[in-house]
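sorry to bug you again but im stuck and you know this stuff better than me. what follows is a protein written twice so to speak, once as letters and once as C-alpha cells for the fold. id like you to explain what the C-alpha cell line says about the fold, in plain words if possible. anything you notice is useful, everything is just below.
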Amino acid sequence: MNIVCVGGGPAGLYFAISAKLRRRDHDVTVIERNPAGVTYGWGVTFSDALLDSLYGNDPESGREINAQPASWDNQEVRVRGGEPAHLGGYGFAVGRKLLIDILVKRAMTLGVDVQFEREVGDLSELADADLIIACDGANSRVRARYADHFGTGVEVGANKYIWLGTHRVFDSFIFAFEETAAGWIWFYAYRFNADTTTFIVECSTATWEGLGFDQLGPDESLALLEHIFQRQLDGHPLISPHNSTRGRDLGRTPWLNFIRITNTAWYHDNVVLMGDAAHTTHFSIGSGTTLAMQDAIALADNVEKYNDLPTALRSYQRERCAAVRDAQGAALNSTKWFESVPRYVDQEPIQFAYDLWKRRGGYPLWRYQLHLATQFTALRRLRCAFSAARREQRDRRRLRLAGGNEAHDHGALTR
C-alpha cells in the first residue's frame, strides 16, 4: 500500500513506524513542512499507559523514549507564593525535539521516506496514494479541504496562554497562581530534561489586556512575566521559542487561545484524520501526544487487520472516537475550571488544590481523605515510595514484553 502522512509530528512519524513494522512492503512517506530538526514546543508529558503501548508496539523506540525521561512524583499548588499544597501523583516528560529526533531516526531505519521542507499545496499532488493521513495539527489544511464532510467543530477558549521555557528546574509538577492589579495569572511547569522546564502561562483575556500584553513586544512581555513570577523563578529568565536569544525581535510574543477541535467523521474516501487534526485536548491535562500516538497504533492495527480500506477506516474511527471521548470531556471540564479560577482561588489552599485536582470530574469520595493525608510529609513520602514501587513493577513488565515483541518484530521484518 502506498501511504502518505501529511505532517511530521509524533502522530505521523509513529504511524509510519507502526505501519512498516506490520508490513515492510508498505510504501510510506511522511511530509513535513519544517526543516529537519525544527519543531515547536518544549517538553511533552506521557504516562505509564502510553509507555505500555510504546513497548508493546515497538520496543526499540519505546526504550529510547524511556531511556532518560524527566519525572516527578508529586504535584504542588502554590498561591501568592505561600506554602504549597500537595496533590501527589507522578508523570514523565521528554523534550519534543528529542522525541521527534528518535522517531525520525527509527522511521528512516525502517525505510520510511521522510521529506522535510515540503508543503502540500493540493491533494492532487498525492494522487498515487492509496491512503492519505492528515496529521498536520489542529489547523490542518488537509482537514479544512473536507471540513463539511468531517463535521469539524472549532471552539476557541476564553483564556490566553503562552508556551515558554526556563532553566529554573522544579522537582515537582507546579501549578502557581499570582494575583496582580489586573487579575489572576498562573503557570504550569514541569521539567523535561536535566536543566530545562516547560513553563506555560495562562490568564483571562481581561487580565492579559489589563497587564498590557496586547501592546508589549517579546522582550517586554518576558520581562513582565519574570517580574510577576519572580518568587518562583528565583532569578532564572524565561525563554520564548520564537526569541530564545533575547534581542532578536520576531514580532509579538506568541500568546494564543486554545482551540478545541472535534470531528463527527474521521475519514472521507481515502483521507483519514489523526492526532490534533482529529481532536484536541486542553494542555492542562497533558494528553495530546499520548492520544496522537495511540491513534497511530490503532490506525496501523486496523489497516493491517482488514484488507478492505473503508472497513479499516470505519473500524479505526469507531475505536478511537470512543477512546478519545472521555479524554475530551475531561479536558473540557479542565478548560472551564481554569476559565473560572477567580471563583475558586480564595479558598483555603488545601481545599483550592483539591478543587484543582477534581476539575476533570469522576473522582471517588475517598480521594479527599488521601488528599488530606498527602499534606503530611511522612505520609507523602510513603505515597511516593508506593508509587516508585509500582513504576518499577511496570518497568519490569515492559522489559519482559519488549523481549517477546522483539523476536516477533524481527520475524515480521524479514518476511
Notes: The chain has one domain: 2-232+234-248+250-413. The radius of gyration is 22 Å. Residues 243-252, 410-415 have pLDDT under 50 and may be disordered. The chain has 15 helices and 17 strands.
